[in-house]
Amino acid sequence: MRETGRKYDELDPPQQAGLQARLQAEVRANTYDASSGVVTVSDDRAQAITAVAAHYNQLFSDDAALQPLREAVRDQENPIPDAGHRAAMNAFFFWASWSTVTNRPGE
Prior knowledge:
This protein folds into 2 domains: 1-30, no CATH class; 39-100, no CATH class. It has helices at residues 13-28, 43-59, 67-72, 83-101; strands at 32-33, 38-39. By secondary structure, the chain is mostly helical. It is built from 4 helices and 2 strands. The chain has a two-stranded antiparallel ribbon with strand order 1-2.
């Protein structure tokens, strides 16, 4: 919406394809710096990671707002009560998704 002023669903197929290609290139780009051990992400990707982590933090806590979703997926109430464990889970989710889609040097 930032670039076109319209929601993704309102774009024509070529515009959607262009956004998909840019997203794929960004997600697959290997931004790991072996000398520092750091993975660098763009501001947009950092915002997306933060939003997804916030959702999972709510989902796996006792947040009443997501109780209907927990019931829909038959999850227990407050399945991960420790905030530190939820943060570790979110870090694992990022690492697992990053490591499965990023390009590997020499491959």
